[in-house]
Amino acid sequence: MIILASSKDAVSKAVSYLDKGELVALPTETVYGLAADATNGKAVANIFKTKGRPQFNPLIAHVSGVDMAEDIVEIDAISQKLMDTFWPGPLTLVLPLKNPTPIDPLTSAGLKTLAVRNPVGIFATIVKELGRPVAAPSANISGRLSSTTAQDVADMFGEKVPLIIDGGATRVGVESTIIKVMEGRILLLRPGGLATGEIEKVTGLKLERVDQRAAIEAPGMLKSHYAPNAFVRLDAKDVKNGEALLAFGKQQTVNAAHAVATLNLSERGNLEEAASNLFHYLKELDRKDVECIAVEPIPFTGLGEAINDRLQRAAAPRK
What we know:
By secondary structure, this protein is of the alpha/beta class. The protein has nine helices and 15 strands.
């Protein structure tokens, strides 16, 4: 395993590995991604194998801009406006695949639609240099906490990932928002790093939430996901024996001093800061002496919707 700091040499090395069908862990503004050439079925299959990810769970194809997206998906007027406004950035759109398509069916899990995103930073540069879309789910074992640093990736995968590009800690800290435009409606498939209110402001349309029992059309729709090894207890008003505490804002939990360990997502009650810290703090509290992580209530406004989505999936019953 090689870890390289972001640089021109790192771009060249990543492009070379991807071109040869190798896996590369890449930083984005949201979380780190486990990347492979989206047109190479063998390389994409290695993503699923390495993560232990079910193949019915589609991947996001990352592009270097709207021009590359136009080559692989059909773009409606609303989606075009959103791309023009929020790309590059933490917004993924599920759109109809063009036929024929160079995208391997494993990337889309055999669906007639594809999730596409234009990330910020070195990832987009690498995609542009490669000249082909890059499939990349979050760089984690399937169902576990997403990686927000290069060291997280190294700790989780070791030698299974031959190259990691280190872009430092991710800025947003939760995965992208995923939407699907259908007949003038916008469906929210996964809340994420772009607040839904921003999308509604640009389009003038209210986002419709998708039932968790709906068919999987995009990443992050599995009921149990983003989970630490310890159990997670939400909306905690007190701390029980053997629990750690994930706090938010001013102190509000009874018996907080009895927690095995405590971290505060944002003492100021800032949701952007809380989102950035979420996965890292859950990982820090996920210790051998912790049976359960008690989580204080977090508002559902703005990025709070994405934070609560990840916490609800982390707390869901596990198979």
